[in-house]
Specification:
The complex is a heterodimer of chains A (472) and B (422). Chain A is of the alpha+beta class and 472 residues long. Chain A contains 17 helices and 20 strands. Chain A folds into 5 domains: 5-89, Uridine Diphospho-n-acetylenolpyruvylglucosamine Reductase, domain 2; 96-213, Uridine Diphospho-n-acetylenolpyruvylglucosamine Reductase, domain 3; 215-332, Alpha-Beta Plaits, CATH 3.30.70.2190; 333-415, 2-Layer Sandwich (Alpha-Beta Plaits), CATH 3.30.70.2740; 423-468. The chains are: A alpha+beta (472), B alpha/beta (422).
């Protein structure tokens, strides 16, 4: 970084908005994907759109690459810094700017924590539906970047279905104001395009979100299985039966053990090989119409017990346990690799079994906890990053899992994004010309390749393109 | 020095970097910097152990000093990371390799090495603090005197008298307990100590106080003086062993949490570890004990003389000892009208001597608590820890909020007096 740039950034953001000492920078080396690490040159913490824009103008002039970061809970390396680059963090942008109860939307700064948004609106009988497992930490801006999911996205849809508007700071520091909630935008749907762009189109600084009315009745039950296959089959059956609960989750034995040992112990039975966590919402009649046949399917598939949560507190505990599962795996090994693939829901049993086999063949500990209703598998592999050979086997297993999933008609990512983790696998699902099309969209936003460079698009694809089709 | 001796390396590996701690961390809330979050601090500790970061880095010590050690992160950590133990060992490690400035070094030596080990010194300090406050000399000391100016006035000598070695039970004797008089507690909150004895004896427990005991060592452990803490722990264990096997009642959450963890503190010495574990099993927070032993004639006696109460969880009671329901239970059973305090498990910024070492950060953390108290509509704030007690008194006064601050024991003593007028 050129001399004087840091001072200029400090003047733009205030002294607490710029972190440049090597000790503190170390803490920003990685996000939730600890396998890949890179220290940034500087971390910037703007307090509002204006400060963010000022910083971006300076960075753009200096041709310094920029990576955005919400809470650093992402699992695909979307917020892994770039060598010599800046990290723009949103941890100081935590204001809820507007809650419009009648029109059922809210406008928030990008650093608002997902759960804080729901807490801010629940007194109006509203909630924000996408609920990633990390919702107690992750930010709305990060959710926009990754198009995050969560258990209740089975019914409500992932983040993109809930974003009505954005304020975007572009690569050169100009501000694109698309904040007005537009259910059907005039012209191109730039907001729709931006959601899931993994920080490569710009930095969202303000987000207008759809709020959903709190359902009159919510019921949760736990179906207990002595066999993981049977739990998968129950899910496939309920999808085929056109049932629409709001969430359909599976946790296997290893996950149950880790959760039950933690502060989030939820009362999952330790003797089970798998539990199916089902929630339905709506009127009493609607909930019954979903849960009664769900229960019948579970029992037909061999569930040994079906337990309904008897109180709101019990229901909350069941979900807190589910959402603490990733962290609880820290009890098993120092690191966890969370794979994120989507499979056809008719093939749940087969692909869960395949990933279990792939891990076992490599002597790896694998736990399954996943959004079964969406076919969104999370084979979780515990490892220790200090063991080089184990790291190699983890990467090999993840490769192999992705290959079998794609061969079975599945896709690379359900909700974590491509990031660094799955970049090279994009070629498994896309042909060169498709990747080129993506490159061209990206270049429309970021011609100089300064925004989260080296992520999502396989390295060779854009390099080729830059040689032949680079816009003048 | 082997860097792995400067932090608790094994414990640091429990952190899987999920980030669920971020939102609860008061210092992360202030700065938004990853390095001032639990996950970030653990990342730095691990980097020290693995040789990637020198423990001599000034920013490393600054981030460790900045932490309030409230342990809120432990209550939300799915991996069960023991952050309190991690921060204590990391601070102790830093003290070994970084020399503080002359003033800080001297103050630490006098504070931890002299004052907090001797009743005479504690008493003299309290007297001089009172004198400085009453004469206005504290104002003349400028920045150094600021904590004195801002805190409530130190009570007169008469209120700092020692508790008797034995106070008999009032009415039928149901048993006996030992009680921690505390270092600062006696000097600053003699009234709380007397209320504690009044309630314990009032519900039928003869109360013994080991004479000559000074300090449990919690402040030493929290501030990186683990050797000093071990010495005081052994002294504490010996003195309480001499009182028998009765429960040890503690009315200071920070001391209670620390005394319940003596086995860990003394883990390197098998014999002492064993004695520590036996001692810790006897330690009970005041409300933890009273909730289990409260007689029926207490019920519903308080009425509204204290107005509406709200209870603020001291961090080392809720996060450190998992004591959450009992204080609320005893307040309600004695008939107090209680409302919930929003975010009652968030730190008030007192954190032992933190409020004196880092007054600005401490006040910034308190700001949210004051807003929460206002929104609760209560007239009386109830706590169970001397540091929090002072922080609330001075904080509310500074914010211009008229309210009473009481310890749980004081509320119960008031109820008892109404139930059984003398």
């Amino acid at each position: 970084m050129r001399a004087g740039v840091l001072e200029e950034l400090r003047a733009a953001l205030g002294p607490a908005g710029v972190i440049a000492d090597p000790t503190r920078l170390l803490a920003y080396e990685c996000d939730g994907l600890a396998l890949l690490r890179q220290k940034p040159a500087v971390v910037l913490l703007p307090r509002n759109t204006e400060e963010c824009a000022r910083a971006m103008r300076i960075l753009h002039r200096e041709k310094i690459p920029v990576v955005g970061r919400g809470a650093g809970t992402g699992l695909s390396g979307g917020a892994t810094p770039v060598d010599g680059g800046a990290l723009v963090g949103f941890a100081r942008m935590r204001d809820v700017l507007e809650v419009n109860v009648a029109d059922r939307y809210a406008r928030v700064q990008a650093g608002v924590v997902n759960v804080d948004l729901t807490l801010a609106v629940e007194k109006h009988g509203l909630f924000y539906a996408p609920d990633p497992s990390s919702q107690a930490a992750c930010t709305i801006g990060g959710n926009v970047g990754e198009n995050s999911g969560g258990p209740h996205c089975f019914k409500h849809g992932a983040t993109t279905r809930h974003i009505l508007g954005l304020v975007i700071v572009r690569d050169d520091g100009s501000v694109l104001d698309l904040a007005l909630p537009r259910p059907d935008p005039d012209g191109f749907d730039l907001v729709g395009l931006f959601v899931g762009s993994e920080g490569m189109f710009g930095l969202a600084t303000e987000v207008t979100v759809r709020l959903v009315p709190t359902p009159p009745v919510t019921e949760t039950f736990l179906a207990i299985f002595t066999d993981l296959d049977a739990a998968c089959d129950a899910v496939s059956d309920s999808i085929a039966a056109h049932l629409e609960p709001s969430a359909l989750e599976i946790l296997d034995r290893l996950t149950i053990e880790a959760v039950e040992d933690s502060v989030f112990a939820a009362g999952y039975p330790r003797e089970a090989e798998a539990v199916l966590l089902v929630e339905a919402e709506g009127t009493e009649v609607e909930v019954e119409a979903t849960l009664a046949p769900m229960k019948a399917i579970a029992l037909r598939r061999g569930a040994i017990d079906v337990r309904r949560a008897r109180s709101a507190a019990e229901r909350k505990k069941l979900w807190a346990g589910r959402k603490g599962a990733f962290g609880a795996m820290g009890r098993i090994a120092p690191d966890l690799y969370v794979a994120d693939v989507v499979v056809p829901r008719t093939k749940l049993r087969e692909l869960v079994a395949q990933s279990t086999r792939i891990a076992r063949e490599r002597r790896l500990k694998l736990a399954n906890v996943f959004h079964a209703g969406d076919g969104n598998l999370h084979p979780n592999i515990s490892y220790d990053r200090r063991d080089k050979d184990e790291v190699r086997r983890v990467l090999e297993a993840s490769d192999e899992i992705m290959k079998v999933v794609v061969a079975a008609g599945g896709s690379l990512t359900g909700e974590h994004g491509v990031g660094l983790e799955k970049q090279e696998f994009m070629s498994l699902v896309f042909e060169e010309r498709d990747l080129h099309a993506m490159c061209r969209v990206r270049e429309a936003w970021d011609p100089a390749h300064l925004l989260n460079p080296g992520k999502l698009i396989p390295v060779h694809a854009c390099r080729e393109m830059r040689g032949t089709e680079r816009p003048k | 020095m082997n860097p792995q001796e400067l932090v608790d390396y094994t414990k640091s590996l429990d952190c899987i970097h999920c980030g669920l701690c971020l939102r609860t961390c008061p210092t992360y809330q202030l700065t938004g910097a990853e390095s001032s979050s639990p996950r970030g601090r653990i990342y730095l500790m691990r980097a020290v152990a693995e040789g990637e970061l020198a423990a001599t880095a000034p920013e490393y010590r600054e981030e460790l000093d900045f932490c309030l050690a409230c342990r809120h992160c432990e209550s939300v950590c799915p991996a069960g990371v023991r952050f309190g133990e991690l921060i204590e060992s990391a601070r102790s490690g830093v003290e070994k390799v970084q020399r503080r400035g002359f003033l800080a070094r001297t103050a630490r030596r006098i504070g931890f090495g002299t004052v907090l080990r001797s009743r005479a010194w504690l008493s003299l300090t309290a007297t001089s603090m009172r004198l400085a406050q009453r004469t206005g000399a504290a104002r003349l000391l400028g920045k150094l005197g600021r904590p004195l100016v801002e805190m409530s006035t130190v009570p007169p000598k008469s209120e700092r008298a020692p508790l008797p070695a034995t106070t008999p039970a009032v009415g039928p004797r149901r048993g006996e307990v030992a009680m921690l008089e505390g270092c600062a507690m006696r000097e600053l909150f003699g009234r709380v100590n007397r209320a504690t004895v009044e309630v314990l004896t009032g519900i039928g427990f003869e109360t013994k106080v080991p004479q000559g005991h000074v300090c449990c060592g919690a402040l030493h452990a929290h501030n990186g003086d683990l050797d000093g803490a071990r010495e005081l722990a052994r002294d504490t264990i010996e003195r309480f062993e001499a009182t028998g096997n009765a429960p040890v009642i503690v009315n200071s959450a920070g001391c209670g949490a620390h005394m319940k963890a003596y086995a860990h503190l003394l883990k390197d010495d098998a014999a002492w570890r064993e004695r520590g574990a036996r001692f810790s099993a006897r330690v009970k927070d005041f409300s933890e004990f009273v909730a289990a032993e409260m007689p029926a004639d207490f019920a519903g006696t308080l009425g509204d003389e204290l107005g509406t109460l709200t209870y603020d969880d001291p961090c080392h009671l809720c996060h450190g000892q998992q004591v959450r329901a009992q204080p609320r239970t005893v307040l309600e059973r004695c008939g107090a009208k209680r409302v919930d305090l929003p975010d009652s498990e968030a730190c008030c910024g007192s954190a032992g001597i933190y409020s004196m070492l880092r007054p600005d950060d401490s006040k910034a953390v308190f700001a949210k608590k004051a807003a929460a108290f206002r929104s609760s509509g209560a007239q009386t704030l109830v706590t169970a820890n001397p540091g929090c007690h002072m922080q609330w008194e001075s904080g509310l006064a500074r914010e211009g909020v008229k309210a009473r601050v009481l310890h749980v024991a004081e509320v119960l003593a008031a109820a008892l007096r109404k139930a059984r007028p003398r």
